[in-house]
Design a protein that fits this description.
CBS-domain, 23 helices, three-stranded mixed beta sheet, about 475 residues, Tetracycline Repressor, domain 2, mainly alpha
């Protein structure tokens, strides 16, 4: 497609988007046009629109169609789509889309992908029998590569790496290396950033960035150009640690080695972007008590998956209710307390969630450890105190004027200070302690924190009311 035609296509699918202000992606109008063409069986129109789309845009189109329209699109046009369209789909959507295709067709798609994308696609499938049917249609070489990849630990560098890389002997010259790269162009990875220099045993002796290679004279030895400070990644390193290494050292690619330190693969920055996105989404979902993205799951399975955390939350709510029941006599005599209780608990919960988000994020990116954890807890407690004072004056004054009762305003103000201090302290302390004892702070922190802020808020408010108002 020419640049002019490509520009026209982009304008067509994003026209009249002033209201939505899209910078990239598909407009709702474009998606509706494709949907209508599918329902009218206007295959020529659908095919025309698909030809103008890139891989990511086609994947977005698949994700935004409903089940029936998606099935119609895949049935008639999946074989005309670029194989990388399916690697752009999320794991959750692949579990829905791929079973609708014949195993032989999926095998053909996988055969066109680079090794890391091929492994990622086969891993996303849950049905083991379906996996075996797909693998059966693959070539012996591709099958061996996938089986080797699946033998590595889950979420490890071995699963993440691609096996296509460029490695050369240390005695080669720049000229010979460039000639080799040109001659073997079809066998090289689609994108690569470094040339690895190896000894006869496939141990890495250094790397040569491509910019160094093309600037050097043809007669120069690559051994003289190589960087010896190589950040090699063990095959069993967790993918989150790999992402941290890339971020810390500003890497664009890094070699993966086996137990004998022999080069077996490479991880590139595009893989790391996916890992960072995946880990961030996972932590965000866990903070909400959701174990995985269930946008494309059936209603019943989604309900069952979420009910586990709601069941736990039910018990924490009962604990808070039991605290309130201790002061039922106070509430009967000062009815206004019943209307004001949610203010104290709600402010504590929101303040604690703010602290929790900051601390969990700091733990995830390794900014927080035993060395600076006490300082973080102390700071958040002080933030809670300061905000508590500010909002106690605000809410205390409002309640005193509203109910014409300065003592009631003072009680809710004091309770607000207590609960915001506790929210800041435990919002920092809970995830730190969970992490220290090997638990994922993103999963359980919110449940514990909600319990603390609700119980503390109700106890402080009703307890102070019992002392000062009765």
């Amino acid at each position: 497609m020419t640049a002019e035609n490509e520009s026209t296509a982009e304008d067509g699918k994003r026209e009249d988007e002033d209201d939505n202000e899209l910078v990239f992606g598909l407009s709702d109008r474009f998606i509706d046009a494709v949907r209508n063409a599918l329902r009218e069986n206007n295959h020529a129109k659908v095919l025309e629109e698909l030809q103008d789309l890139g891989e990511a845009d086609t994947a977005e189109l698949i994700s935004k169609l409903n089940d029936d329209d998606r099935a119609a699109l895949l049935k008639d046009f999946s074989e005309k789509m670029d194989p990388y369209v399916f690697s752009e789909l999320s794991w959750e959507l692949r579990r829905v889309v791929l079973p609708e295709l014949p195993p032989k067709q999926i095998a053909a798609i996988i055969s066109e992908l680079e090794s890391d994308d091929a492994l990622d696609m086969i891993q996303s499938l849950d049905d083991e029998d379906f996996k075996h049917d797909i693998i059966r249609h693959l070539s012996a070489k591709t099958r061996l590569t996938l089986e080797e990849g699946m033998s590595f630990p889950e979420d490890s560098a071995g699963r993440l790496m691609q096996r296509e890389f460029v490695a050369i002997p240390q005695f080669w010259t720049v000229g010979k290396t460039i000639d080799y790269l040109r001659a073997a162009a079809e066998e090289l990875p689609e994108d690569f950033f470094d040339v690895f220099v190896i000894d006869p045993s496939y141990h890495i002796t250094g790397t040569v960035p491509l910019n160094r290679l093309i600037r050097a004279s043809r007669g120069e030895k690559v051994d003289a150009l190589k960087l010896e400070d190589v950040h090699t990644i063990p095959f069993n390193m967790d993918q989150e640690e790999v992402a941290q290494l890339f971020r810390r050292e500003n890497l664009t690619s890094a070699p993966v080695v086996d137990a004998e330190d022999r080069l077996i693969g490479v991880i590139t920055i595009d893989d790391i972007v996916d890992v960072i996105d995946e880990e961030a989404q996972e932590d965000m979902l866990k903070l909400g008590g959701v174990e995985q993205d269930d946008l494309y799951q059936a209603v019943v399975s989604t309900s069952m998956a979420r009910s586990r955390w709601l069941f736990i939350n039910l018990f924490t709510a009962i604990m808070a209710a039991s605290v309130v029941s201790l002061f039922s006599g106070t509430i009967e005599k000062v009815v206004a307390l019943a209307a004001l209780m949610p203010i104290v608990a709600g402010m504590g919960g929101n303040a604690g969630t703010q602290t929790l988000a900051v601390i969990v994020r700091a733990i995830a990116v390794r900014e927080l450890s035993g060395a600076n954890a006490p300082r973080a807890v102390y700071k958040e407690a002080l933030v809670g105190l300061l905000n508590g004072i500010v909002f106690s004056i605000l809410i205390g004054g409002m309640i005193a004027l509203w109910y014409q009762n300065p003592m009631l305003g003072g009680v809710i103000g004091m309770a607000m200070i207590v609960n915001l201090i506790m929210a800041g302290t435990f919002g920092a302390l809970i995830p730190i302690l969970l992490n220290k004892y090997g638990q994922d702070p993103a999963i359980a922190s919110s449940i514990f924190l909600t319990t603390v802020t609700d119980v503390t808020g109700f106890f402080a408010f009703l307890g102070l009311a019992t002392i000062f108002l009765l």
